[in-house]
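$ fold --in a.seq
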Amino acid sequence: MSVAIITGSAGLVGSEAVAYFASLGMDVVGIDNGMRATFFGEDASTKWVRDRLMEKIPTYRHHELDIRDTEGVSRLFDRYRSNVALIIHTAAQPSHDWAATNPTVDFTVNANGTSVLLEAARRFAPNSVFIFMSTNKVYGDAPNGLPLVERRTRWEIASSHPYSGKGIPETMPVDRTMHSLFGVSKLAADVLVQEYGRYFGMKTVCFRGGCLTGPNHSGTQMHGFLAYLMRCAVTRTPYTVFGYKQKQVRDNIHSADLIRAFHEFFKKPRRAEVYNIGGSQESNCSMLEAMSLCEDLTGEKVESRYVEENRRGDHIWWISDISRFREHYPDWKLQYNVPQILREILECNRDRWRNPCTVRASEMSLASLSTP
């Protein structure tokens, strides 16, 4: 029996990972206590995804467990021990806005929770592969110091800069910058994952993601850019844009592309590795461009309001340089771009958003949960 333990298993990345690795024949154990609804309200609840996974995937075992619960996590790992081949840690408090409202909870979930999982892995499954979903916020607002040029619909990096045509690499410093409290808690976890790889020789990796997206995203204003924007377009809910003339740029990676990257690492793991991961130059957009795409796909005008003040520590321009990962894993390729991602988000969620009381998890398709 080969077991994959996946935290945040009802979330965007976690649910994609559950379906993918279950399709490979692994027994998947999910950890998710539904805290997304606590963070962002019932509209952001992932219960609908959890219920769908439990119904559609016979080998999936779900545990309503808090990753900060040392005894509970230890008992779970002790149950499976050497059968654990893979740990994918995606559970998190994911919003830098929310982190400022309760820094203690943010830090204990993101940093302490990661420490609990790493120690359980070291004690009970030291030969497993430990994949951590980190974030580009570990770099703080350092990217805002790059030479940017204003275009008609976006900010773009100056063509003379070494990052032009590539994106931001892992060599960008993490010091002397405003991270946001969320960025600090994730950086603490990120460095700890690396240290367990270096100090204890474990097979660990940090994937520093840009915008992660896909049809399973329960997006809200505080977190889940593309999914929430499309939801606003469909339901005619006003969308608020914060600063940078609505021209801030993000690369966006579909959760299915991300999980295939996880699989490549799982097949050929390394120790204490770090990769920037995202849509790169192939899949990115500005806020203005994303709103225009939503309007084209829905035929509806996106109602929006603009707030001049940007979010503290927010990036003006982020595009990931993924060349290091591609060098190590040349068989991996992106399969989605932003228009394709938005179209799939719309097709998979339109009815649920318009009729939230009548669409049940049992009536939904697993089409959005990818297979290899």
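$ fold --in b.seq
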Amino acid sequence: MAHDDHDHHNHDHGQDPPSDMTLRVKALESLLVEKGLVDPAALDAIIDTYEHKVGPRNGARVVARAWSDPAYLDRLRADATAAIAELGYGGRQGEHMMIVENTPQVHNLVVCTLCSCYPWSVLGLPPVWYKSSPYRSRAVIDPRGVIAEFGLAVAEDVEVRVWDSTAEIRYLVVPQRPAGTEGWSEDDLAALVSRDSMFGVNLAKAPEVDR
């Protein structure tokens, strides 16, 4: 569901997520390992996969293909889950995907207000801020302010749309392709796509001037 950014309220939602959450997770992991329910090596392998091997690189490949292949972009628009699966990415909250495209007139921001639904298969492990209550609350109330805190000022004449991910649908922002990248390979394009740009809290990186 999309929200516009016309209503602004002043609410103090605090700054950081509870610091004891990491400790709770670690305690649970230790308990499961101690009782023999989880193999610590398997746990490490899962974490390594999503943190280092997946990361946001899968999503960056999806965006790079969309930038360079209009037919693929059309398939993403029609059925993002299937189009993403074409590249071999799926499972682990990668089902029920939908893309939203940034344009000169519209900037998209993704949040999950009820929990922290997140497409692991294309973005790796969710960042701490995405799961935090301040982000989840304020992204809907003051999206421009939240985006500005990440260092990005969205022009007043650009509409900000907020997309609320759920268990039924998860959103992936396709940022605008940076100028000066005509003729670039998909590998080079993918290097410009950051995780944050696929949430909408930042833009794709500009090309290096001395390229």
